[in-house]
């Protein structure tokens, strides 16, 4: 089964895409940042809300969201964010 990348944090183990091919949110919740498409934002048409969520999540310490899925041992926030072209080293 293929995996999908979170538009907010770059986590690449999502089981479903956050938006379907028509652009409708699937309510997939990211285990990493907790972002839920269709709930925490209204659509990928509003990229600001994705960025706002990311900024807030990062400012709160980028805490691992899921209690059922444990954080990967080799989890690296900076590398993960680079997947979605977000550089936090600056
Ligand atoms: Zn995420």
Automatic annotation (TrEMBL):
Recorded superkingdom: Bacteria
Protein name: Ribosomal protein L37E
Taxonomic source organism: Paenibacillus peoriae
Gene Ontology CC annotation, any one: ribosome
UniProt keyword Ribonucleoprotein, yes or no: yes
Keywords, alphabetical: Ribonucleoprotein, Ribosomal protein
